[in-house]
Amino acid sequence: MSDIMRPIPFGRLMDWILTEYRAHGSVFGVTKLVRHTNGQALPIFAEKIESPYGPAAGPHTQLAQNLVAAYAAGSRFFELKTVQIMDGEELSKCVAKPCITAEDECYNCEWSTELTVPQAYDEYVKAWFACKLLARELGLGDPDGFVFNMSVGYDLAGIRSEKIDAYIEGMKDASASPVWNACMDWTLAHLDRFQKVDAAYVKAISPKVSASITESTLHGCPPDEIERIATYLITEKGLNTYVKCNPTLLGYEFARRTLDDLGFDYVAFDDHHFVEDLQWADAVPMFRRLTALTRARGLEFGVKLTNTFPVDVAAGELPSQEMYMSGRPLYPLTLSLAQRIAAEFDGGLRISYSGGADAANIRGLFDAGIWPITMATTILKPGGYQRLSQIGGELMDCGTSPFSGVDAAKVAALAEAARTGSSCRKPIKPLPDRKNGRKVPLIDCFEAPCRGGCPIEQDIPAYLMAAGAGDHERALEIILQRNALPFITGTICPHHCAGKCMRNYYEESVHIRDVKLQAARGGYDALLPRLHPKAPVPGKRVAVVGGGPAGLASAFFLAREGIDVTVFERRQALGGIVRHVIPGFRIPDEAIDRDVALCRAMGAKFALGADVQSADALKAQGFTHVIFATGAWKAGSAGLEYGEERGVLAFLEQAKSDPASLDLGADVVVIGGGNTAMDAARAARRIPGVEHVRLVYRRTRRYMPADEEELALALADGVEFLELLSPVGVKDGVLTCRVMELGAPDASGRRSPVATGKTRTVPASAVIAAVGEQVDGAFLAANGLALDQKGRPVVDETMQTSVPGVFAVGDTRRGPATVVEAIADAARAAGAIVSLDLGKYAGANIGPDHQAPLARRGDLCADCSTCGDSRCLGCATVCETCAEVCPNRANVAVAVPGKRQRQIVHVDGMCNECGNCATFCPYDSRPYRDKFTLFWSREDFDHSENEGFLPYGDGSGTCLVRLDGRVAEYDAADPACGLPADVRALIQAVRADYGYLVR
User: Fold this and answer.
1) Is residue 161 helix, strand or coil?
2) Residue 976 and residue 720: Cα distance in Å, rounded?
3) Residues 6+ apart with CB under 8 A from 594
4) Torsions phi, psi of 549, nearest 5?
């Protein structure tokens, strides 16, 4: 039953921990263990914590193994997952699955534990006992240096119920509980498993698991009910108490404006929660009364900031109607509420913080007097629990001083920076799809997503490693195997590889394009003299028509393989659009010249000033194949109903070759939203006499086709973006536009512009149309090529047209496209003419040591401009992302003899199908459904469709296996049992070396 979690008995839990640690040096996959040895600890609740952070109430605090993993990674304050009177199966039926998605900001549609309350209690007690043992046995710190904080909800009647009351009393003193006795008995009976733990230590472990509690209430809970619950917990239960507050205390207008200003305008919510939730006027006097109440009893009171933020499911993010937002958009809201509270109470009201905290901001929070600090979103992302390890180092020297107040001025500064800075700002464009479009295989699923994002599948990890080692010559050699134009692509490539980079989930992608250019510059002089073509191939002569990127790349690949190839270029300089149109502030001529030199070194020949019109004429000269790479130079039109417009290519060419000859007037309007439009707008800003450049587009900038980088550069250059305007015509220096609004999404996923019936005028001394550049269909048709409806040549997978031996590549066959797409076309066409060995360095993508990339996992870089290529996570060498991001540790990396990479086994009984691993898997798959699964019972096996196995548990290799939808019994110990060799090896590895996984 894939979504039902099966708690692990204490004996098995400890056997797992101790066996894994002895064999692998890790605890539930956490290898970066944090050890507190400096004696520092902060007093809290008459207890102490060696570090002021830990996991928030949520997925990371619902099972014992989750809490243990967080403890191993340095956490010392644990906000246990909320319990309430509705629990177990009754609650689980109310939680739609998947229930978490954390690709950028996090959304969830679950709230309290899906276990029964007694089961949750057992998990917390087991974790408490286990952490006490591990503190001593593994030397992780003071056994009394951590705190468990209960969380209960959601109304007084439920909290006073026998079920919740027994939970609270049991947490206050667990000594009489069966689970406590089971922990004690197992440990005393297995002291031989320990080296530093003896009977006296075990018997002295305190059964007082928790002396503090966080009150959690549902949205709309009346203020008097909130106060009654807190009063009950303080006066009748004697607990140090936090009241969890909602960000709705800020008011609807403030929250809406803040999120809109930060680019989260698409997040949908109305004002009903803001109206129904606790109001500021009620909260302040309540907090003062509760503070006095706890002080009179020698207890502590504070507020928990904040709960997650309720928003509507507007784009199918989760299978529910409402979901709860956390992560970086919650950070400025939570800090703003902290700012208001700190000012109101002169810093005297304690704040327990949870709202977008991570390694980048946690030190600032702590220094402002805000602690403890709990997190969920950051540890749902790749790196997982090991992100806590980095924070452990950051806060190791936390001191020993008790809470002395919140520094209101520091909090105000943090809040202002969060609201106005870049760290919480959403990118202009929607995040790119980071999936590779394929189903994850059962075995050997590791690959580098960056390569899948590159049209030529460059060996990116290989050249990153070479460049990182300082060997730029080898790095360039690797690059040239697939990429004929390293200088051009190292300068202006849209680098969609970066969009797939797993590092995006940490802070930003590895600067792949920059490393490529560094390698090209650093390796050029040494490599160029060594470049030589292979032996001549008889019987083949290729004519390439067009000396732009597609033509140069075609010639490079063909000449390298020994083909006699000549490029015919009608102009006197090679480079095409890149040379003649793209502005010099984007790419210097030197970069183009060096790529041409690389092509010449391979033996390509060039005929400049040659205006070729006929493929037949070339064949008559003895050429066996012709490649058309003539580009897309035909001007498009903005479709103005009246007035004149300039074509963007003609404008850019003139602006590059003779800018002084242009007279554009003061007010230039560029129509369009692509990269070429951004080039035109930025170039126009540099023309003498131009005062304003306005870019008109019928959608918003979020839906412009231009790359994020190009949009940002245009804005930085002072280009004004006039969004939701559709041009009508220009007359007497005025462009009239229809005012549009966004309607439903169209086939591309972009919201369609809909006319409002209103118009707007824009000053326009010149109008440049940067829309729809086209290929010269008449030229192609005259050569007998069949064209599609857009006037582009029809080609097969090798780029061959309807005319045998004639190929079309780059913009000629695609329309306006990118340089790297032109290279991809060139490689396919060349590969149809001569055999290409593009995969020569594929093996070099895999590093020799899988520990090297693992050492980077979990560490965020504070300043990516100084980190270099060392941020590469080495996904081709080791992925294991699904194992990192699973809160329950249900995806386990298993070393299999004979396999270079560890394999993923999904443990069914530990999974509740939250869906987090599916979010981050680079495949278009759900590891919790699609990876080979270990089952703990026949019931769970029968209620699942996962491919996997159920060991019989009798010590033999016999197990029940489901493969390809068929179930059969196999003896995995027998090589001839009939199982696929890789599957049998995986089962045997689990049996031999990971027996603690088997129930």
Assistant:
1) coil
2) 71
3) 487, 520, 524
4) -55, -45
First to last CA, the chain: 15
- Omega before 306 within 30 of 0, i.e. cis: yes
| CA-based radius of gyration for the chain | 32
Query: Which two three-digit tokens encode residue 775?
Result: 């290929």
Cα–Cα distance measured from residue 486 to residue 483, given in angstroms and rounded to the nearest whole number: 6
State pTM to two decimals.
Answer: 0.94
- C-alpha span between 250 and 334 (Å, rounded): 9
689, two tokens: 């006499």
Q: How many CB atoms lie within 10 A of CB 955?
A: 8
Interior/surface letters 49-85, b for 16+ CB within 10 angstroms, e for the rest: bbbbbbbbbbbbbbbbbbbbbbbbbbbbbbbbbbbbb
- Please give the pLDDT value at position 251: 96
DSSP SS3 for 424: coil
What does the CA dihedral 151, 152, 153, 155 come to, rounded to 10 degrees? -140
Q: How far apart are CA 181 and CA 175, in angstroms?
A: 7
684 with 655: CB under 8 angstroms?
Answer: yes
Strand order in the sheet with 667-671: 646-647, 766-769, 667-671, 692-696, 720-722
**Cα dihedral angle (633, 768, 584, 869), rounded to 10 degrees?**
-90
pLDDT digit string (tens) for 352-361?
Answer: 999 999 999 9
Quote the longest CA-to-CA distance of the chain.
103
Query: Around Cβ 502, how many Cβ atoms within 10 Å?
Result: 24
Distance CA 397, CA 400 (A): 9
| Residues 664/690, Cβ–Cβ less than 8 Å | yes
pLDDT at residue 953, as a whole number:
80
* Helical pair 512-527 and 472-482, crossing angle rounded to 10 deg: 100
Give the residues of the chain that fall short of pLDDT 70: 1, 746-750, 868-869
- Give the pairing type, strands 322-326 and 106-108: antiparallel
Q: Crossing angle, helix 117-137 and helix 162-172, to 10 degrees? A: 10
3-class secondary structure, 310: strand
E strands in 615-724 = 625-628, 646-647, 667-671, 692-696, 720-722
CA distances in angstroms from 775 to 568, 687, 792, 793, 823, listed in the order given = 18, 28, 7, 9, 18
Contact call for residues 11 and 4 (beta carbons, < 8 A): no
Query: Which residues contact residue 262 at a Cβ distance below 8 angstroms, ignoring those fewer than 6 apart?
Result: 329, 332, 419, 424, 425, 426
* pLDDT at residue 3, rounded to an integer: 84
- Among candidates 112, 125, 94, 104, which has minimal Cα distance to 7? 125
Q: How far is CA 467 from the centre of its chain?
A: 25
State the amino acid at position 761 in one-letter form.
Answer: T
Q: Across the beta sheet with 322-326, what order do the strands follow?
A: 100-101, 106-108, 322-326, 309-312
C-alpha neighbours within 13 Å on the C-beta side of residue 872: 32
Q: Identify the residue whose tokens are 């958009």.
A: 329
Dihedral of CA atoms 671, 676, 678, 684 in degrees, nearest 10, equals -80
How many other CB atoms are found less than 10 A from the CB of residue 256?
A: 18
Closest CA to 826 of 466, 580, 488: 488
Strands 147-152 and 806-808 come out as unpaired
**Alpha-carbon distance values, 302 to 230, 309, 335, 353, 402 (Å):** 11, 20, 16, 10, 14
Angle at 266 between CA 261 and CA 269, to 5 degrees: 95
Ramachandran sector of residue 95 (left: φ over 0; alpha: ψ -120 to 50; beta: rest): beta
Euclidean distance between CA atoms 370 and 78, whole angstroms: 16
CA 565, CA 606: separation in Å to the nearest integer? 9
